[in-house]
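Hey, resending since the last one bounced:
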Amino acid sequence: MKPKLEIACFHLSSAIIAQQAGADRIELCDEAGLGGISPGYESVKLAREKIIIDLFVMIRPRGGNFIYSPSEFAQMKNDVLEFKKTGVDGFVFGILNEDGSINKKQNRELVQAAHPCSCAFHRAFDVVTNPFTALEEIIDCGFGTILTSGQKQTAMEGIDVLVELVNKANNRIVIMPGGGVRSSNIAELKEKVKTSFYHSSAIMDHSEMANPGEIKLLKNNLNS
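The structure tokens again:
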């Protein structure tokens, strides 16, 4: 099966561009400057009306760390339950403990709230204390995907860890490289990491909009 491409989109118009350019899945979020937070309900509802490919939604109440107060966690759970009503295909989130380990209780609760939608653990993974312990805990929580740069700034820098994660995952969860993934390096990532999904924003300037030409190149280089 050919590997697939997810595009992170910070606006509905960007998601529509990504869909038209051949993306396989959209990760919808808000606030690119914060690394992505939860979009508003109306944005999700409208996106579901316009986007026919798979649509995953970020669940993150704020920027900063990935340790959440009881009220923030309640907001995250409420967002999952509300967004699920729109018919989205999945959710993207990740909750840690103070010591950099996976908060299994809260993550599992959100995965259960999201059911039957799939869940991806986002780049909170890149700041966990032990990535291989975290891998097992995330699988145990019921996630289907981990978005990661291999604990480095970019996926290319973390490529050795990505390879090891794919090997240790052994098809129990999808390891999805993200972070600086571009048409110029996706072929090398595919060749070495050998996974089924790759993640990019495809933003090529100072805007927050995916570039359709870059998405087409990403797809071409992924499928060549």
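The chain has a mean pLDDT of 97.

Sorry for the duplicate.
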